[in-house]
Amino acid sequence: MKKQSLIEKKIKSTDKKEKHKEAPAKSEEMSEKQIQSLVEENNKKWEKKFKTAKAEYEKKLKDKKKKLKEEFKHKTQAFAQQTETESVSHKSELDSAQKKYQELKQVHEQEVKDLFENINTLKFVKEMRYFKHQWEHQKSEKKRKKVAAAMANATKAWVSDGEKMD
């Protein structure tokens, strides 16, 4: 009896092993299906995550582009304003310099006209040139004093003639 029970135990244990062997086969078939469904499910999840990440990236990129465009627009406007103000200030400086130049030119032209149209002035200029020449050639103090006195008299005469004309 003991032998029989041992044999029965062995048979039962082998039956259990065979059952376990068969069960994994069924579970493998199921697991293949499950694996395939899991892979498909994971693929769908990853595709969804990828689309979401891509959409977020494109949104961030779009926001960055928009921000950069606005920043560029503001900087361009600021540069245009600065350029305009500098242009206006430089133009006003240039205009004032040209105005001063024109005024000086008119004064100069009037002085030249007065100088060379007035016969007394021409005589005075000739006398001064003569006195300058005399001054350079006269080395003695006595003679230079005479030249200086003559220059002073000629200047007084020219000034008094100018006052008479006015």
Structural class: mainly alpha
User: Care to count the β-strands?
Assistant: 0
Total domains: 2
Query: How would you sum up the global shape?
Result: rod-shaped
Average pLDDT number = 81
The CA-CA distance between the termini, in Å, is 167 Å
Roughly what fraction of the amino acids lie in strands?
A: under 5%
What is the makeup of the main sheet? none
Query: Number of helix segments?
Result: 3
Rg over CA atoms: 58 Å
Q: Summarize the amount of helix as a percent range.
A: over 70%
Give the uncertain stretches in residue-range form. Answer: 17-25
Series of H and E elements: HHH
Describe this structure in words.
This protein has helices spanning 2-117, 119-137, 141-165. The protein has two domains: 2-99; 118-166. Helix 2 runs antiparallel to helix 3 (141-165). It is mostly helical. Mean pLDDT is 81; it is low at 17-25.
What is the element layout, followed by pairings?
Elements (H helix, E strand, L loop, with lengths): L1 H116 L1 H19 L3 H25 L1
Helix pairs in contact: 2-3
